[in-house]
Amino acid sequence: MARTSTRLRHGATGILAWGIALWMFFPILWMFLTGFKSEPDAVATPPHIVFSPTLSSYRDVFAQESYWHFAINSVVISTVATLLALLVSIPAAYAMAFLPGPRTRMTLLWMLSTRMLPAVGVLVPIYLLARATGLLDSRTGLIIIYMLTNLPITVWMLYTFFREVPVPILEAGRMDGATRWQEVTQVLMPLALPGIASTGLLSLILCWNETFWSLNLTSSAAAPLTTFIASFSSPEGLFFAKLSAASTLAVAPIVIFGWVSQKQLVRGLTFGAVK
User: Fold this and answer.
1) Residue 83 pLDDT grade (very low, low, confident, very high; cuts 50, 70, 90)
2) How many Cβ atoms are within 10 Å of 83's Cβ, its own excluded?
3) Which of 15-19, 102-106, 112-116, 207-211 is predicted least confidently?
4) How far apart, in whole angstroms, are the C-alpha atoms of residue 14 and residue 12?
5) How far apart are CA 91 and CA 155, in angstroms?
6) Strands, E, within 86-245: which ranges?
7) Global model pTM greater than 0.85
8) Which residues does 104 contact at the CB level (< 8 Å), separation at least 6?
9) Residue 167 is inside which H or E element, if any?
């Protein structure tokens, strides 16, 4: 009886999990299918479940030479911003984890609270600052903004991972004559590599998906794929089929990257959870 009850409970849990997964995946599937519809089919009411697939929307998107320009901007800005965020976060998290001061905890909480701040609240000063320094519509400007906006999360995550590293291992390195640089690069970083990798992956995903700053601080030269998607909303109306095709092309790289690296991401996020 108990075994039957357990099986029923597991079965119900599995059905619920699959239902939630399909519910969350449905918008992505709908966007993917709409990209293969003609414009009349894409806006038909009621929606056409059966339709004649066409690649015309994808051909129109690729016909725009600017697509590759936006894609290269996304890759360069997201990658460099993530590397810079890790470069700054690793020593900051190390200092907070192993050389804490009386206000370290408060500093961490304050840094994390800045991430909760609505971006629109600081739009005007940042826009004026970017314009005054010549960083408006430049890759450098977006890289700095992306790096700074993700810094609280990367520092907090790395701080959490570093706290899981046993201190006696670091002390053993010091007794063997390791310098502070060697302690970080040759002892701490290899031990916390899963955590560092998952932090970098999360930062990369956040940078790739960021829309607010790219729409407000760029126009064409440094605009990433998120701005490219928005360009399909014009005064003449929404082109749903082309918009869906452009959105699919924009999210496909990061979705595939997430699937490929999901094992590493989960491993890093659970790093130190079980000892």
Assistant:
1) very high
2) 15
3) 112-116
4) 5
5) 9
6) 233-234, 237-238
7) no
8) 96
9) helix 167-175
